[in-house]
Amino acid sequence: MSGPSRAPDGRENIRFTFDGKEYLARPGDTLAAALLANGVGLVARSFKYHRPRGIMAAGVEEPNALVTVGLGGRAEPNTRATDVFVHDGLIARSQNRWPSLSSDAGAVFGLAAKALPAGFYYKTFFGPAKLWLKYEALIRRAAGMGDAPTKADPDSFAQRSAFCDTLVVGSGPAGLQAALTAAEAGDSVILVEQDAALGGSLLVDPDPALGADWIAQTIARLRELGARILLRTTAAGYWDHNFVTLAERLAEPGAVPSHGFAQRLWHVRAGRVVLATGVIERPVPFTANDRPGVMLSRAVRAYVRRFGVVPGQRVVIATNNDDAYLTAQALREVGAEVVAILDARTQADVPAGFPVHFDARPVAAVGTLHHLTGVTALVGGRTVAFKADLLAVSGGFTPVVHLHSQAGGKLDWNEAAQAFVPGAIAQVCTSVGEVIAPLPAPAVVPAGSPKKSFVDFQNDVSLADIDLAWQEGYRSVEHMKRYTTLGMATDQGKLGNLVALQRVAQEQGVTVPQAGLTTFRPPYTPVTMGLLGGPGARNAGAHVRRIALHDRHDALGPTWQPAGYWFRPRAYPQPGETLGAAALREARAVRGAAGLCDVSTLGKFEVSGPDAAALLEIACATRVANLKPGRGRYTVMLREDGLLMDDGTVWRLGDNRYLLTSSTGGADRMAQHLSYIRQVLRPQMRVSVVNVQEHYAGLALAGPRSSGIIAALTGASAPAHMGVVAAVIAGVPVWVLAASYSGERAFEIHGEATAMGPVWDALLAAVKAAGGSTYGLDAMDLLRIEKGHVVIGAEADGRRGPYDLGLHKMLNPAGGFVGAAGLTRPALTAAGRHRLVGVEAIDGAPIAEGAMLVAREGAKVEGHVTAAGRHVLGEGGIALALLADGPDRLGAEFLATSPTRGMHTRVRVVSPHFYDPAGERYRD
Amino acid sequence: MSRYSALGLLRGAFNGQKHWQPAWRDPEPRKSYDVIVIGGGGHGLATAYYLASVHGVRNVAVLEKGWIGGGNTGRNTTLVRSNYRQPQLHNLFEFGLKLWHGLSDELNYNVMFSPRGAMFLGHSDADMAKLAELGDAMRCDGIDADLLTRDQVEKVEPLLDFSRNARFPIEGAVIQWRAGTARHDAVAWGYARAADALGVDIIQKCEVTGFVRDGDAVIGVETTRGRILAARTGICVAGHSGHVAGLAGLRLPIESQTLQAVVTEGVKPMVQSVIMSNSLHCYISQSDKGGVVMGGDPDNWPSYARRGQPTVVEHAIAQAIGLMPALSRLRMLRTWSGVTDMSFDGAPIIGPTPIDNLFLNGGWCYGGFKATPASGWTYAHTLATGTPHALNAPFSLERFMTGATIDETGVGPMPNHR
Amino acid sequence: MYQIDCPHCGPRAQSEFTFDRPVEAIVPPDAAAADALQALYTRTNPMGVDDEVWRHTYGCRAWLVLTRDRVSHAIDAVRALGPEALS
């Protein structure tokens, strides 16, 4: 018998499948352990050459054994077999192979490897970009690893924030001790461990000095002291100000979570962080060092001691350090034969009783697709061949300094260990344990073929690729990484980066610190996107804001229109009616009788106090102070650059009390702006600004019958156009603002949002009785276009000043408002500005919104249609437009052309006020 | 320069690829040059290449503080497109897009420009009208743009969420088929190799620490490798423009901010094009290696640290999953950050400065990579002739004071609102 | 994710705050146009410490001045701005 195996002990009660074949596992097995226990050697194929790969490691650093686990929307590609604990019914599949793992057509790339060195794609595939697109399609299909899921995720992801005095990362002896010390001192402690069990290296190498029960006792004591212990939790990122993100697995990959939540994301703010993150063993470069059957020495020990798996019966061990002798010990304990220990050192004080060869380095591993059969080595300059089914390798130990570095900490070079260790810190964190004291392990000159000695296993980066990058001038470590793809695979160079740096040092006469190190970026291990997106992903991260009367509208079956986070009725189509027809019907109801519309989303601010008018004359570019109580006016607010920020109306409700309205889309921005003016620019003013956007719900009542309705419902005559009164409708106190957007006599009725239901009911009943209707945003748009009112977001698109929109005559001549300085810039009133006009279709055809205005087809663009509508009562397309020197070109003809929609309409430039330019309809 | 070809690779199969020369030399800086370009990113290297190839100005040094391509050239999401609404922008970027289409051949370096199409999704009729306006503006200037219906979008990107009750339902898109992605590092390396072959000195690990002045003019730079003189000096260090221009006493309409990006583990092809959504501020594409690359809004406060704020990325991912639910079980492999020059209208600055012989190319916000060829070409023209080309004339430094700003998003002067 | 010590609320996560502008870019509405445009359109943008206007937008909504290092992200001081800072 050869290859990995495990003698059954009766606990093999978990069923799982790999590539369709069913196997049994023990509780506590990782998938890797279970596969080895079942004698499976070949688990995966590499990225570039599709080389056969087995299991190399026993932890999250595994570069080779990537599989897809789970089904449908729960499928997780690229799952490390070493980082999933087997559960009953687990379904695992191999990846990146066709038609099967053992006969993979992609292996042909391996045959061409000599012509496909690092960066080969930069040197070939020339020709037009379209041709590259064809090559690329083939390359893309060959690349990638697992198959992408095609379904939505059935599970949920939780998020949680936490604070602690001490966060300990890693539960090996150093981490456990640090957690215990902190907890005993009264700290609130969070201890995180990426494994499913606490203990770290103690799980493999028990410490007789601590005693067998030490882990259990420590855990019990920590729990007693209130420490929070999180298993299967990875400290993924270490950010500014001791903010650490943790990814906690609540269900294993592919498993159905018991409470619906697959994982939980923690945002932790820690007083201090203790990093007990340990080390990762380095592989050894030699020919075919990537074969199934070549395994890291400590991983071998872990499979033997923790999982009861014997990864091989005849074992060669290649090492440059003392640690591998513990592996030899462990193998001997379970009856495996240690054939040879190839120790690269010329001498060392090592345990007796093993066939040790000093000055010995592996040259090549040989074997079948599935298993190792032998090892050749250079022993004191002599080539020796060994029969073996396992080659355990140890090239030294790389401290896990990722989090320390992410936190901004510096690294020091430890020459004896050939490793970077944590140096000066940049945040309140300490590294403890093996991470600061890796075992000595001298650099060793590799003995195999550079072409086939891999340093980045998954991406098939060999020593020869590293040499080539240097030869071609890619000498900065970042260039080398990017040119060869070293360290860019899913393990992010955890195994190989230092081996590559050693190669550079050996070949090019620089030191490893001179060769440099790439930056450690979060996350430490890959993190599920759904976890990061969190519960908000379902709504694409955007919340929903509902208007107060949402349910009353919904009962009328409107088409809802998203408007920022809000949803507003777009129209209320009757059965069988198109949206366009509904909007026209609603608009005609406003023109002919009365219409009722919800305008609750408008920005609304109550400004009060002795300096209220003075503050408003800073925010608004128009006069405000001369407004009489009970009156209001249209106003515009400028940005500091003098261009339009927003528009609205300002109403003097009382001597020192004003209401300012602004657009829906700009309401949040306006709130911030007004607060800035009040608190930063004018802190000494005696004024208060209160955002009452959602305090009030607002309804617009428009149409020739509207003043009669107001009079009937309030028992008093309606205020004149641009007047405001306090009134009571349906028993609810409201403000009645005589403002018109539609061009008809119209009112806005604002009252406390939660109380406005009866007001809506009363108004709707009255509107219906008058032969009117509700109307939505589309009708509102038809009405305002015909009236020539600009809207923020269409005509006022963030690039227009008052001059462009014909609003310059209403500016406050005294200045002193925000934007006054910006307005002085000459380009804002220069010839050629695109300015507001109306256009109407010469033959009555519809005009495309967004169409370009050109003199004729192919001529240069001179303007565009900002909003397109039609005559509401009459026929024919009309639109508002921005046109170069527009107001000077009334009567000129243009083509409103939309090549993307194939709509081309001849139009004539006219005044934007298509309807009632004199404003006669505002009077009763 | 040894020519790159498939034949060369085959030859290498028999000699262990030993015949390849360094892609660029590692020269000592000379005492003086005709032109110094500060910054060895894609833009600076492209500038040097076009100075040498188009204008015959070969006595040029590119000074790079670290390693070439190590700034934003190597940190972006590799999108290449010209679908801008403002004519000054789409004309500049379209000029660049045309260069992109022939760039691999021109440089004899495969920059893997992949015109796979870039689309803006529309989520409502109002969105679709805005997207049509964008497309119409482009089409009227001879740039390709097509409207896609919902069904047509589904044919290109079947994994998007097409359900009617999605938070942002998909109504259609405007697509620019000639747009796509490129291999960002290769752009820097390709320009460097081609510029070097024409005699340009690319000097790495050479940080500019000050300017040498002669009255109102700049006549050279002080560097960590000594004083180097030049007839004209061009700053090309987007992300750090404020800092470098500050060494000359200039204050710019630029604030430096962090922009983060994310790549997932590699998977087989699942995203075919470049997907963008203006409503959502996220963009998604898939690299040739299989990683899904995405980004979102910048961390909108000033920073020179290449270190982002995690919840910003988490939000971008939430948006991306909202659009494409199948992304949920992919894993984020890596997140990284670049420092961006946020200009005060969102458009770049390419032209003279108030100081004689000192020129500025910067302010690229989060959109500089796609412009690399156009930026280099126009900047080379400006540095060679002393005056801007018609394509970059609108992108002057004075425009902020005159009011002739070029504001694609209409957000105004505060970069943190952009 | 910084921790910002709001003088009104105590230490809070950065996500509650919004950056507005550097202190040097505060433009008084009655400033001369040339001065206002200089303040609006030019920045020191230091690679180091600057005084910045932030707002505790999703907290007490008060305005603050942070003295913050733009490379290390260390916040040296936070002080109140606005009416609360007047005495």
Description:
The complex is a heterotrimer of chains A (924), B (418) and C (87). With 924 residues, chain A is of the alpha+beta class. Chain A folds into seven domains: 14-123, 2Fe-2S iron-sulphur cluster binding domain, sarcosine oxidase, alpha subunit, N-terminal domain (Ubiquitin-like (UB roll)), CATH 3.10.20; 157-279, FAD/NAD(P)-binding domain (3-Layer(bba) Sandwich), CATH 3.50.50.60; 283-395, FAD/NAD(P)-binding domain, CATH 3.50.50.60; 449-515, Arc Repressor Mutant, subunit A, CATH 1.10.10; 550-600 and 695-783, 2-Layer Sandwich (Gyrase A, domain 2), CATH 3.30.1360.120; 603-691, Alpha-Beta Plaits, CATH 3.30.70; 831-922, Elongation Factor Tu (Ef-tu), domain 3 (Beta Barrel), CATH 2.40.30.110. Chain A has 21 helices and 48 strands. The longest helix of chain A is centred in the last third of the chain and has 15 residues, at 667-681. Chain A is elongated. Chain B is an alpha+beta fold and 418 residues long. Chain B is 28% helix and 26% strand. The longest helix of chain B has 16 residues, at 125-140. Chain B is globular. Chain C is mainly beta and 87 residues long. Chain C has one domain: 2-Layer Sandwich (Folate-binding fold), CATH 3.30.2270.10. Chain C is 10% helix and 38% strand. Chain C has one helix spanning 33-41, and strands at 3-6, 10-13, 18-22, 49-55, 63-69, 75-80. In chain C, the strands form two sheets. Chain C has a four-stranded antiparallel sheet, with no helix packed on it. A two-stranded antiparallel ribbon of chain C has the order 1-2. Chains in contact: A-B, A-C, B-C. Strand 29 (527-528) of chain A pairs antiparallel with strand 17 (331-343) of chain B.
